[in-house]
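Dear all,

This email documents one entry for the complex benchmark we are building for the journal club exercise. For each entry we list the sequence lines for every component of the assembly. Then comes the predicted three-dimensional structure of the complex as a token string, followed by one or two observations. Please use this as the template for your own entries, and keep the labels exactly as they appear.
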Amino acid sequence: MRSYLSLALASGLLLAAAPAVGQTRFAWPEQGADPSRYTHVEECYAATYRARELDVAQRLGADRVWSDTVGTGPRSDEERQTSVVVETARACMQRFANVDSVALRDFSLLLPLYLAAEWDDRAQALAARRIAAVPKDAEAELAAVVDTVIRTYLAEQPRDDFVRPPRIGLAIRFASEHVPSLSDRVQRFLNYARLILFIGEMGERWQDTALVRGLVETTARLADSLTTADRDRIVELGTGVFGPDGDLAVQLYAIYNMFFGRQAFLDSLRQSTAAFVKLSRENWARALGGPPESYGWGMPIGEKAPPIEAEIWLGHDEKDGPRPAPGRISLIAILSDWSCRGQVDDNEDAVYTPARCTQALIGLRRLQERFPKLDITVVAENLGHFKYLKEGVTPEREAELTKKWLESFGIRAPLALTVRDSWTLPAPDGRRIWSEDENMANYSFGKSWRLLRPIDAFLLDEDGIIIHAAGISGYDETFAELIEILLGRGRAGV
Amino acid sequence: MTDLRRTNEPVEELQSEVSARILTEADCERILQRAHAMARGGGDTSVTITSWWQGEIRWGRNRVTSSTDRQNHVVMVSRMMPNGVRGTAQTNQLDDESLEGAVRAAERISGFGSVVGRGVGYYPPLPSYERPTSAIWSDATYGLTDEARGEVARALIAPAEDKGMLSAGYLEVRAAARAVLSTAFPELRNGKHAFWEQPYIRWTQAQCSTTVRNPAGTASGWAGGSSYDWGRLDAPAFAERALQKCLAAQNPVSLEPGRYTVILEPQAVCDLLELLTRTFMREHPENGNPGPWRLVYDDALGLWRSKLGLKVADERVTISHDFTDPDLGIVASTVEEPRSVTWIERGILKSLGHLLKTDIQSLDGWHSRRYAVGYRMSGGDTSLEEMIRTTRRGLLVTRLSNLRGLDVESLLATGLTRDGLWLIEDGKITKAVNNFRFTESPLFVLNNIEQLGEPVRVFRPTRGEGEQLTPAVVPPIKVRDFSFTSLVGAV
């Protein structure tokens, strides 16, 4: 699109700029790509992926009003793929529609494309053909194929997000049929657990079938038999789901909860906090596979919530009593991720709150609106600035700005801001070193609980006992379910 | 001239954008308004405009080989559609059709991805910053016509030609303007510009260098200089110096490589310091990246320590920048610290440049701090002649070239001497010497100083289109144990 204006001086006169003769203006290339003319599977994959990306961008862009249905939740995950994506996949994949003759070397691309085209029967047939092609003693290959098929059905492979909805039913049937044939029980556990945890995220309606109950039980029994060496292998092989960020113990805890049964779990809370805490702690000990001290990461369920200490309170008068308030169902929402209000950019991104922070704030707001009787306290520590604003930002001013920021997301809960001590490294280094915040320290329970999410929330019963501790998200219903039970308990006089 | 532009604007107004050598502030504002008026689908529009003009003359073998006048106006249009990513497209045609094409292209790219939630929630008013000003515009530079440049070239060629030598050289005068403007977040602005924008600024740069060689191609002398102000460059002096060096460089002999006491002329010092001055940013060592300023990981505090506060050079060395120094005018960014900066003070690493976010998040201020875009190195009062007179055996180096870094922590580098290398014996220049490859580090050099001279402006122009000024004022230095590792055939 550039024409370089280059003027040769013969006479010393400056000529006015003019396009050179014969130059043509840049024109957009032909836009109407026809996927049916593509001859390679990779091209079909790229075309389908592009269709998906454009579709998402256009749907988001068409809505000029900020929508707080951010992120994808179980319901939107279960929606069917849009027609643009399906038609693109079908148009391109006509050339590769014969399952019996397509090249198996393209298996990892063909399988998601069949699903994108909503040719589920072909997808199943291809998976069966691929399994049949695994040589008799090729255990590693069999494990890899099984893993690939399950992940593809669940749309968990990177860039396979045009596979929608996830084919949970297909994954369950496939896992039931083929995972038992894996001789390596760690591989069996990985495949079952991945599927079970996925189902756990999708809601109850998937969990109560006999097939799923059977798989959960099998997974729980396998988990019970894991040795320390097995656990290390699982962490190594399952990074992201079971690795350091998706902590193995936490995932096992979720599996045991599913095994016990979600309703049974919730029923224990309806009965009493003590029953719920006992069950939670038993499952946690089972998930750890050893004493909690050996793991170094505890679980605060059942602990008494420490009182909130703060130098600055907005929306709450300390004369009205401590927070969390005794006798009330409370939610302590800790703004643990400083980058939500403290990340600075020197471009237009300075005026942007990261999506993960926005999701959490909206999740908190929804809880506030749904449960007016829930006592919410937002807790934060001072940063010394608010976003790009630092000059004149005292702790009081920072508290005001933070409160205003929270209110712009509809959160009207009181704010407790602790003013940390700080010191600076001697000049010329001059970096500021902050002391540890008292609330952060207290709610880390001796460093056994990590505060690292945009909003780390603690749900307390009327006696100030912690019932649930997790990050707030835009669509997770766990907090809402538990709050409803606690509030209902109060009404019933339990 | 056929008017290929379709527009409702009076042709005279457009003419001002096309025929002027660089765009004016009003031109840039109008481009933003036009681009935004062409936008569809809402969202924000920004333009990054670099407009430059360059007049140059080049000669070789005593004859002018090219003489050009060039200009370009590069407009990068950015569009942020609602919930879209930033899409950019670039054009250098300012008529409506071309500008609209760039806007459409940027919108299309913006629609390819999504960034949900930009600007959502409360944000306080944007802070305003005062940019420092310094001397960076010269009418003498802007007004040096092609005829005048021709006369300069003639004057630089003549002395060499008279002596039967071959002169080559390059003279360039340049003017540039830059503006980064946008329509984003008008409700947050505290004044006309957001702090990430670049209000219109313009500057000039002049450079002149000449190389004289003998017809046999065995001797070479060079001299040159650069400044924002053509009036500060003494072109005839360059010609004379280059000629004298060439004449003195004839019949060079070969010496054994090894460690020598060297007198580095200011240009050679600047060439070597290039490796050092671009490392003056603190994020690099404090993020644990290997480099000359990383010290050690502090387990107790959980952070990387740098060498700030430690002695890294001879106590006579200070490297700093002062906006008020007329020799050191640079184009400052909006959020930059509006005061002088000293990176090395009396040999101690006093400060390093940093980003805006480092200052706000970790330090006490709310500015960025520049690295050594332009700088002055301290000197002494020892003249070059005195340095030579007090050298029992050493080498006089005109300049260095082809520097390549070898080690990021020690800044060890290799390169070549060129355009004049002489042996000094018992206080006198005795012979011309064939060029060497050296393997040295500016840090080692700055710790092995014996004498320093008076700092002078050196040749340090930027070469890319529309690039900003990088002035340097540097002394000659005498250094012991400078390592030459092999002979080279370069002249």
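Observations: Chain B touches chain A through 80 residues (CB under 8 Å). The radius of gyration of chain B is 26 Å.
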